[in-house]
Write a structure and sequence with these properties.
The complex is a heterodimer. Chain A contains four helices and three strands, in the order H-H-E-H-E-H-E. By secondary structure, chain A is mainly alpha-helical. Chain B has a three-stranded mixed sheet with strand order 5-9-8, covered by helices on one side. In chain B, helix 5 (about 145-155) crosses helix 8. Chain B folds into four domains: about 5-95; about 105-335, no CATH class; about 340-505, no CATH class; about 660-750, no CATH class. The chains are: A mainly alpha, B mainly alpha. At the A-B interface, helix 3, strand 2 and helix 4 of A face strand 1, helix 1 and helix 2 of B.
Chain lengths: ~160, ~750
């Protein structure tokens, strides 16, 4: 997750490029309407802004970048959490504990895995959709032109 | 996770991994809940997975706690520890957890129960109904290690000793209870004494017993949790004195739960350290509690207070309470197979000396308590039994070796039949029966040693007045550090004979069972030799000097000859003793010789199966005849001795048969150039047709330099210079069909001759 988060931060530091008409990203439409919920949008590389955009006073939408970063981080978290759940499930199915209560607890474990990983997946998709709905460029005086400040006292990589 | 009683199985290693992984999952979910907050809060929470993550972390946390408790309950369950074959599996019926997996709640409940018990039991006049109720509640939770930990910590070792004095009805003790300071206990120095003691008040026996049983079960759980250490015992006295352990108070508790082997070992070593059986008097004194490596010894080394097993303040060291404690402890150790053999091996000399002392006739006031003497016998029988052998093979082999050697050396020092001298103190019949248990458990090793073509080992020569443990080598069958279960096979036949002889002297069904074992061993030997040499006669055109089974028959005869010689020696020793003594003891010994004669008559050296049948029929008849005789005879009957002599004479194989066979077999090999070895083709035990030429290399006995027992000129090396691998290959080659069948000088088997009465 830390690597994904750092990658997102590096992308956010790419200098603005001139406007080249309609912005597109792989597999994601920036047009009106929501994307296919079964296919979460990917945070593809930003196309360098043209000099025309710079001339028009438009800058990168930092909120959009932050949402993509969050989506990537939540996706990575989902993978890591699922693996940790699977380690527990492997020990249980290998025979660590057998009996009726163990069977019940195994079902609880499965539900907990589905709940947590489902919540992370849904959150990652939600962030990606909201990011995709954002314009890539905003006016320099738009609040979205500034990177949202992280909360003090929180580790961004979860460590 | 509370619920009804259910059957559960834990794989302890995997379950530990499961708990560890759950804890890691909990940590991961908690960290990501904070990460999600850090990422999403500045964005105005467009989505919120943090709640699900926190919920998952909470669930994992609760699950890990509950599972940890379940595992602790499973480990504390009063069932035998998992064996090697079970793969660390614990299978038990779990009861509903009244604390729903909450360890803190269990500990708090135990602490509350402890405080209640202290208040109820140490007040001047305890209410029996309240104590009975507390005993019931404690008994119900006694298998819960966390409840018990809370209980024992709240009561404290010193106040627990005072409670046990009340429960067991032990008066006095030189302590007082300060009711104004939470019932703390102190040594009496003119202070107030509790009214209960002053007025001679006692708990009703039923309540005392219930309280003792509950405290026993709870302390057993405390012990299995590894908490009943020397340090804890150093505070276990009702005077509150540091470093004094009133372990005698544990006596009535030991039968109410399975105490940890480490605790039993600690107490047992202190018991023997304080037991003196030298001279003609049994004595007990306070002894250090804690062997090297334990807390007590470490404390002593650090200069902290040394912990001492003081028995019981105010009680005679050799009083009945101490004797009951010693017997209960020895029986608890005997019934713990994991430590029984190694513990008994460490104390075998003292056990046998005490047992001989305790069997001295009535005019001598030896002072050995009867329960202790019986517990020694129980310990020897269990330490040498099959269960201890399975649980601790190396320790069991060491015990068998040291037991046999102790008996052998003692007999050598005190018995000299040639000069009609016997100054020995015979072990009691119960101990002789216990020897029989050991001999029967190690039957295969005993008779393997008897029929081996090379002596199994050498007997260490002890320094005068020292036991085998003190003088023997550090490793091997005699040492204190067991080298392995194979050591029992290295016990020389003469040492085994001493133990077998004492076991035979027990007489009765035990002696007949030992004879049946000998016959069975002979039959098994014959069967194995036959199975390995089937079909050797080939086409009938080759005439071998001997049958390839001739060696097997010789070994079979030697085995039975060994048994008969041991039996005859035992009969002779009993006869000598009977002649040296007079009266009832002599009559009893005379009856035993009659029994041995009946066994001797039943043995058919050439017919092991017939021997087994004969033993089953003849001996009980002899027993009945002896029992029917009203007074017996003052000395062994001449017909009985004559019968033993006749059987021995007919069945004896010359003592030098091993060396004679090795010489003749080697001659077959050395003369092969002039007198070619005829190949022998047999079907072996596995059903494969094999051709033996007599050449150890061609026949596969020598596979490389490690097991090559021939020198460069092709002669066998000197046996004393052979390595174990060379020795093993040499013995297999000596017994191989071609070598045996081409040997025309195999020692004669005299038992083949018909004997009177056949």
């Amino acid at each position: 997750m830390a690597a994904a988060f750092q990658a997102g931060r590096r992308r956010a530091n790419v200098p603005p490029a001139p406007f080249e008409g309609r912005w597109t990203m792989t597999g994601v439409s920036t047009g009106p309407g929501m994307p296919d919920p079964a296919v979460p949008p990917a945070a593809g590389p930003a196309v360098p802004p043209s000099s025309a955009l710079v001339a028009a006073g438009l800058v990168a939408n930092e909120r959009r970048a932050a949402l993509f970063d969050a989506a990537a981080a939540l996706t990575a978290a989902g993978v890591e959490v699922a693996a940790a759940f699977d380690q527990v499930i492997a020990a249980l199915t290998a025979g660590a504990w057998r009996g009726p209560a163990a069977d019940d607890w195994g079902r609880e474990l499965g539900r907990a895995r589905a709940d947590v990983t489902g919540a992370l997946d849904e959150a990652a998709r939600g962030c990606a959709w909201k990011a995709a709905a954002q314009p890539e460029r905003v006016r320099a005086d738009d609040p979205r032109a500034r990177r949202p400040a992280p909360l003090p006292g929180f580790q961004l990589d979860g460590r | 996770m509370p619920g009804p009683s259910e059957r559960v199985v834990f794989d302890l290693a995997l379950a530990d991994a499961l708990v560890t992984r759950l804890a890691a999952l909990r940590g991961l979910l908690w960290r990501y809940s904070r990460t999600a907050a850090a990422l999403l809060a500045p964005l105005g929470w467009p989505v919120d997975p943090a709640g699900a993550l926190r919920q998952g972390a909470g669930w994992a946390d609760a699950s890990a706690t509950a599972l940890t408790r379940r595992l602790a309950l499973a480990r504390a369950a009063d069932v035998p520890p998992p064996g090697q074959a079970a793969g660390g599996l614990v299978s038990l019926t779990s009861r509903p957890d009244p604390f729903a997996g909450d360890s803190d709640a269990a500990r708090a409940a135990g602490a509350g129960l402890g405080r209640e018990l202290v208040g109820a039991a140490l007040r001047p006049r305890p209410d029996p109904a309240v104590l009975a109720d507390l005993a019931t509640r404690l008994r119900a939770g006694a298998a819960d290690p966390e409840l018990v930990a809370g209980f024992v910590e709240a009561v404290g070792a010193a106040r627990l000793a005072a409670v046990l004095r009340r429960a067991e009805g032990v008066p006095g003790g030189g302590f007082r209870i300060d009711a104004t300071a939470g019932y703390q206990v102190h040594a009496t120095r003119g202070g107030p004494r509790p009214a209960a003691d002053v007025r001679g008040w006692r708990l009703p026996p039923a309540v005392g017993d219930a309280l003792t049983a509950a405290l026993g079960a709870a302390l057993a759980t405390f012990s299995r949790a590894g908490r009943l250490t020397a340090d804890w015992l150093g505070r276990f006295n009702a005077r509150g004195e540091p470093g004094a352990a009133e372990v005698t108070l544990l006596g009535p508790l030991l039968g109410h739960g399975r105490f940890a082997p480490a605790t039993l070992r600690l107490l047992g070593d202190a018991l023997f350290a304080g037991t003196a059986v030298g001279g003609d008097r049994y004595g007990v004194r306070p002894a250090p509690l804690g062997q090297p490596g334990t807390a007590g010894e470490a404390g002593a080394v650090r200069g902290v207070i040394e912990i001492t097993d003081v028995g019981l303040f105010g009680d005679e060291p050799t009083g009945p309470r101490r004797a009951r404690y010693a017997a209960a402890l020895l029986r608890a150790i005997a019934d713990t197979p994991a430590i029984a053999a190694s513990f008994a091996a460490d104390h075998v000399e003292k056990i046998l000396a005490g047992s001989r002392l305790g069997a001295l006739p009535a005019p001598i006031r030896h002072g050995v308590p009867e329960p202790v003497a019986r517990a020694w016998e129980h310990l020897v029988a269990r330490a040498g039994g099959a269960e201890a052998r399975r649980a601790d093979p190396a320790g069991a082999a060491t015990f068998a070796a040291r037991l046999a050697l102790t008996v052998y050396l003692y007999r050598g020092a005190h018995e000299d039949p040639a000069h009609r001298r016997d100054t020995s103190w015979p072990p009691p019949p119960g101990m002789r029966a216990a020897f029989g248990e050991v001999v029967r458990t190690w039957r295969a090793e005993l008779y393997a040693s008897v029929v081996s073509l090379l002596p199994a080992g050498t007997v260490p020569r002890p320094a005068p007045g020292a036991g085998p443990g003190a003088t023997g080598p550090a490793l091997g069958p005699w040492g204190r550090r067991p080298a392995g279960s194979r050591d029992a096979a290295r016990i020389p036949a003469e040492v085994w004979a001493a133990l077998l002889g004492e076991a035979l002297a027990a007489g009765g069904p035990g002696a007949a069972a030992l004879a049946a074992d000998a016959a069975l061993a002979a039959q098994e030997l014959e069967q194995s030799v036959w199975a390995a040499t089937r079909g050797y006669r080939g086409d009938g055109h080759v005439a071998y000097p001997a049958s390839p089974r001739a060696l097997g028959r010789l070994q079979q005869a030697a085995l039975l000859s060994f048994f008969l010689a041991t039996l005859a020696d035992t009969a002779a020793a009993l006869t000598l003793r009977a002649e040296l003594q007079a009266g009832d003891e002599a009559r009893r010994l005379g009856l035993m010789v009659d029994e041995l004669a009946a066994i001797a008559r039943a043995i058919r050296p050439t017919d092991p199966i017939g021997t087994l049948t004969g033993l089953a029929v003849t001996v009980p008849v002899a027993d009945a005849a002896a029992a029917a005789r009203p007074t017996g005879q003052p000395v062994p009957s001449r017909p009985a001795l004559a019968a033993i002599e006749a059987v021995l004479a007919a069945g004896s194989v010359a003592p030098g048969w091993r060396a004679a066979y090795r010489t003749s077999a080697t001659a077959v090999w050395l003369r092969r150039a002039d007198d070619p070895i005829l190949p022998v083709e047999v079907t072996d035990a596995a059903g494969h047709r094999r051709r033996y030429t007599g050449d150890p290399r061609a026949d596969g006995f020598i596979t490389g330099a490690a097991d090559d027992f021939l020198d460069p000129s092709g002669d066998p090396l000197d046996e004393g210079r052979m390595s174990p691998a060379q020795r093993g290959a040499y013995l297999r080659w000596l017994a191989s069909p071609a070598i045996v069948a081409n040997n025309d000088n195999i020692p004669v088997i005299p038992v083949l001759a018909a004997r009177p009465g056949d």
